[in-house]
Amino acid sequence: MGRSTTSAMSVRFGTFFGQSPTFWQSIQMECDFRALARKRKQLVSGIQPATSLVISASTRNPLPKGEAG
Fold first, then answer.
1. Angle at the Cα of 32 from the Cα atoms of 30 and 36, rounded to 5 degrees
2. Dihedral, 8, 10, 12, 14 alpha carbons, nearest 10
């Protein structure tokens, strides 16, 4: 994998090519996400979604009747 485009380099590329720095940062972000997509399974293994934690907690410790959460 090559070097990332920094914010400063995005400004330079934008000036040289007559485009906005945001254009170059967007390209860098797209490349970063594509690289992460290849590692997604490894990155998210062992992470339990928050929704499952909330559901688990509410079924284990229900509030007494009449008490709001």
1. 115
2. -150
DSSP 8-state symbol, 19: S
Query: 14, 20 in Cβ contact below 8 A?
Result: yes
The amino acid at residue 11 is V
> The domain containing residue 30 runs over which residues?
7-57
CA dist 24 and 31 (Å) reads: 11
Could you tell me if residue 19 is inside a domain?
yes
Q: Report yes or no on 62 lying in a domain.
A: no
pLDDT in tens, 1-47: 578 999 999 999 999 999 999 999 999 999 999 999 999 999 999 99
Provide the domain count of the chain. Answer: 1
Q: Answer whether 23's CB lies under 8 Å from 11's CB.
A: no
